[in-house]
Design goal:
heterotrimer, A alpha/beta, B alpha/beta, C alpha+beta, A: alpha/beta, Rossmann fold, 11 helices, B: alpha/beta, eight-stranded mixed beta sheet, 13 helices, globular, binds thiamine diphosphate, binds iron/sulfur cluster
Chain lengths: 294, 385, 82
């Protein structure tokens, strides 16, 4: 057998490493937590996308998922709980050359931040939202939230939840997102591909990533560990591209419809703003400089 | 640095305080504003929305004040000068992002055209009831800068200054107007751009390898960068080290929070703007600010006509509170009279700073209108006895 | 076909088992040994079956494993590819 050391010019390195703040690893996420897998896909998507990563900005809110901004070696902003989207809106509108990605949790984006995300989708602000959905509030110890499937046990639904949950793709579709997809952390290749697609697609894009939280969701609901959840994703997911988003609601351990549900084109916010002002103001209209810093 | 002439509406105008504030922001270089409508502040952003497409910039009406107050922070990190404008209920919603701006040292201006509270209170009528909220409204321990104008002219001049201070100290600056000043129309002189001094952003010259986002300069203020320029920096509202990395322990907290407070506190002297008159041999000094200072002037004139030796201290900087000035005056006067459109806020600061060296009299008013000069006069007379 | 290799950063591993479960050719197994944090990392049990596809690398939530290929004496895949 050939000794690799003799032949390899330089020992290989994990391809994602140059894009992570390796001085902060190991990260805080638990064994079998899916957030790291989603981040792994994200970094690979960035590499493959050939985007200028000096112009990438990653914005997170607060939560386990919200810690993503702290681990990526890009301009990154760890903001307040629920408000990553309006921060990202300001960032993008003031410097449209930036590629702005919001990476945060389901509670952050759809409970406390619910109002912001529907309006960003409505406006079609050119930001990309990656929502890690682990079905509850993990960072604070496992409380129920707007995505918690009914009958789930959480610390604030000790007898099982009874509130209906949001169907996130349906909500984002209705609000006007131009791209809506759902994958799980089992679907690493498809997820990576979807992330590349949204990096290249103008307008408000949304990916829901179902992700195990073995420590809080799976454990309390006696659903095994992270690996069991990954196997569940593998067994129970059905790929249905273009499925009507009204048909992709989730329930506890039932079938999961994954795929790209929405991919359409609508003029994005700044385009609309410029067109309207130019039409109304004529010669008096002054285009905003490429960056408001100039 | 001189103002960018595109934003400067040089000339002699007849305009209200809200509009003058907007012109001040444009003159200072603000090219991004986010807002949410609320009386009596809306005219500021209405004017911005009308003006900015002819100058080059962005106005966005957000879905609420939480959104507006953080959208401006995003814009600042993209490189813009940015501000938001609100009144009572919206000011309450913005408080979390005051904290984020303090913690991340994000220069920005938050304008509050004060109306009566609590809650919806008096939507169309004046008050000065948010002065303590401006100081203490966000959670945690911090210092803030707050200015209070008393005329449309000052709404212009001091808005420019508010932006400059925000940049110099890398902090949010509260611009504390009130409904009367906001809606009062007077002459406003806007000078030529080359006469308007604008403080530039403190961008670093260091290379990405050397630069640390929260490494303080001598004045305790760190240098800034903006997104998209290759620094690949991290900012967080979590307690952090000089690299901007979260660090959750008592030592990191002590180091960071002390520096954030100290960078403002040690500048309190140079930040103390006020108007002082007739205090040399005064038995009583009236301390006032904003619209109340104009009513107080009438009371001072009436008192002087009655032979009372009254001095005037009009506070322009409210925070950091000019302790040193009050202390100095307390040594040479008998009493302070403090009228304000609240039931006793800044008077507590005067009393604290005077530390017993002079008596302190409040002239409280719950808001909705201004004081009658006689109300203030009668307290001056009482204090002079 | 290029030959595949897999590199495991034992100290970063948290023992979730994703890589072992989802390696298409069953190259890996969980080791009975512990790393210094007390987790069982994977180890290579069938090196000849590794294609260097890096699927394990994509699944790993802890950036603790990755696959790569040797082509004309050069490592491809892994961070030296480009
Ligand atoms: C204004 C505010 N309210 C509450 C909290 C506490 N908090 C922190 S994270 C979190 C929930 C996070 O849930 P999610 O977004 O689903 O992220 P996860 O931790 O599950 O990844 C809450 C309620 C906070 N930080 N700020
Ligand atoms: S608590 Fe859940 S979401 Fe948070 S790191 Fe642990 S497994 Fe992941
Ligand atoms: S590189 Fe592919 S074949 Fe090799 S161990 Fe990893 S998953 Fe298995
Ligand atoms: S996927 Fe990563 S963390 Fe999980 S067992 Fe394999 S090497 Fe360890």
């Amino acid at each position: 057998m050939i000794e690799t050391e003799d032949l390899v010019e330089a020992p290989p390195q994990n391809p994602v490493e140059p894009y992570l703040r390796t001085d902060r690893l190991p990260h805080i996420w638990c064994p079998g937590c899916g957030i790291g897998t989603s981040l792994n896909c994200f970094v690979r998507a960035l590499i493959e996308s050939k985007e200028d990563l000096d112009r990438l900005a990653v914005v997170s809110g607060i939560g386990c998922s919200g810690r993503v901004a702290g681990y990526v070696a890009f301009d990154s902003f760890h903001t307040t709980h629920g408000r990553a989207v309006p921060f990202a809106t300001g960032l993008k509108l003031a410097n449209p050359a930036l590629k702005v990605v919001v990476y945060s949790g389901d509670g952050d984006l759809f409970a406390i931040g619910g109002n912001h995300i529907i309006h960003a989708a409505r406006r079609n602000v050119d930001i990309k939202v990656i929502c890690v959905n682990n079905f509850l509030y993990a960072m604070t110890g496992g409380q129920s939230g707007p995505t918690t499937p009914p009958s789930s046990i959480t610390t604030t639904s000790p007898y099982g939840g009874f509130e209906p949950a949001f169907n996130l793709p349906h909500l984002m579709d209705a609000a006007g997102a131009v791209y809506v997809a759902r994958w799980t952390t089992f679907h690493v290749r498809q997820l990576t591909r979807a992330m590349i697609e949204i990096l290249h697609k103008p307008g408000f894009c949304f990916i829901e990533v179902l992700s195990p939280c073995p420590t809080l969701y799976e454990r309390r609901n006696k659903l095994g560990d992270g690996l069991d959840t990954m196997k569940y994703y593998k067994e129970k997911s059905k790929i249905r591209h273009g499925a009507p988003t009204s048909e992709v609601a989730l329930d506890k351990r039932g079938e999961i419809i994954v795929g790209k549900f929405v991919d359409r084109n609508r003029p994005e916010y700044l385009e609309l703003m410029r067109a309207q002002h130019r039409a109304q103001l004529g010669d008096r209209f002054v285009e905003a400089p490429a960056c408001l810093c100039d | 640095m001189r103002a960018d002439p595109r934003g400067v509406l040089t000339g002699v105008h007849f305009m209200d305080g809200d509009h003058a504030c907007c012109e001040g922001a444009l003159a200072a270089g603000a090219r991004f504003a986010a807002g949410y409508p609320i009386t009596p502040s809306t005219e500021v952003v209405e004017r911005f929305a009308a003006r900015i497409p002819t100058i080059g910039g962005v106005f966005i009406q957000m879905e609420d004040e939480l959104a507006a107050s953080i959208a401006i922070l995003g814009a600042v990190w993209a490189g813009a000068k940015a501000f938001t404008v609100t009144s009572g209920p919206g000011f309450s919603l913005m408080m979390e992002h005051v904290g984020l701006a303090v913690m991340t040292e994000t220069p920005c201006v938050i304008v509050n055209v004060q109306r009566g509270g609590p809650s919806t209170g008096l939507p169309t009528l004046p008050a000065q009831g948010d002065m303590m909220q401006a100081r203490w409204g966000s959670h945690g321990d911090y210092e803030i800068i707050a200015l209070s104008p008393n005329s449309p002219q000052e709404c212009f001049d001091l808005t420019v200054r508010a932006f400059n201070l925000a940049e110099k100290y890398r902090t949010p600056v509260m611009f504390m107007m009130d409904e009367v000043v906001g809606h009062m129309t007077e002459k406003v002189v806007i000078p030529p751009a080359e006469e308007i001094e604008v403080y530039p952003r403190r961008y670093t010259r260091k290379s990405p390898g050397e630069y640390k986002p929260f490494e303080p300069c001598e004045d305790l203020v760190p240098e800034m960068v903006r997104a998209g320029t290759g620094y690949r920096f991290h900012i967080t509202g979590v307690t952090h080290d000089e690299r901007g990395y979260p660090l959750i322990n008592p030592e990191a907290q002590d180091k960071l929070v002390r520096r954030l407070k100290e960078k403002i506190r040690r500048a309190a002297g140079e930040l103390a703007f006020y108007e002082e008159e007739g205090t040399d041999a005064a038995d009583v000094i009236v301390v006032s600010y904003g619209i109340t200072s104009r009513v107080a002037q009438r009371a001072i004139d009436l008192a002087r006509a009655k032979g009372i030796r009254v001095g005037k201290l009009r506070l322009i900087t409210i925070w950091p509170f000019p302790d040193e000035k009050i202390r100095e005056l307390a040594r040479r006067t008998g009493a302070f009279v403090v009228p304000e459109l609240n039931l006793g806020q800044i008077v507590r600061e005067v009393e604290r700073a005077a530390a017993g060296a002079a008596r302190t009299y409040a002239v409280p008013h719950a808001g909705g209108t201004v004081h009658r000069p006689e109300q203030i006069l009668s307290v001056i007379e009482e204090a002079a006895r | 076909m290029a030959r595949g290799f897999v590199t495991i950063l034992i100290e970063r591993c948290k023992g979730c088992g994703f890589c072992v479960e989802f390696c298409p050719t069953k190259v890996l197994a969980m080791s009975s040994a512990f790393n210094s944090k007390g987790y069982h990392p994977p180890h290579v049990v069938a090196p000849e079956k590794c294609s260097g596809c890096d699927l394990c690398g994509m699944f790993c939530p802890d950036f603790a494993i990755f696959g790569w290929k040797l082509r004309n004496g050069k490592a491809v895949g892994g961070g030296r590819e480009s």
